[in-house]
Design a protein that fits this description.
With 93 residues, the protein is an alpha+beta fold. The protein has two helices and four strands. It has a four-stranded mixed beta sheet. The protein is elongated. It starts with a strand and ends in a 5-residue tail after the last strand. InterPro entries: Alba-like_dom_sf, SpoVS. This is Stage V sporulation protein S.
Amino acid sequence: MDVLKVSASTDPSKLSGAVSAAIRNSGEVAVTAMGAKAVFNAVRGIAIARGRALVEGADFDVKFMFRPLRLDGGDRERSAIKFVVKKVDAAAE
């Protein structure tokens, strides 16, 4: 599964293209973000990608979870949000 890392400076439109391409190629992608602006950009990018998919007659499901991270090998643990995006069969619904 591809993993896309989102930062506060990520362009949601470009992220949506990367999400769409990953869904077309492998059927699923993980999007990780840490920080309020990064999470906001991730949600916007995924929403744009889903809107584009619906126009094309496709759809996908999104699940999210917290993912603990240790930065710089230190003792402090930070949390990131991991969005798992999977293609679903639109005809089944």
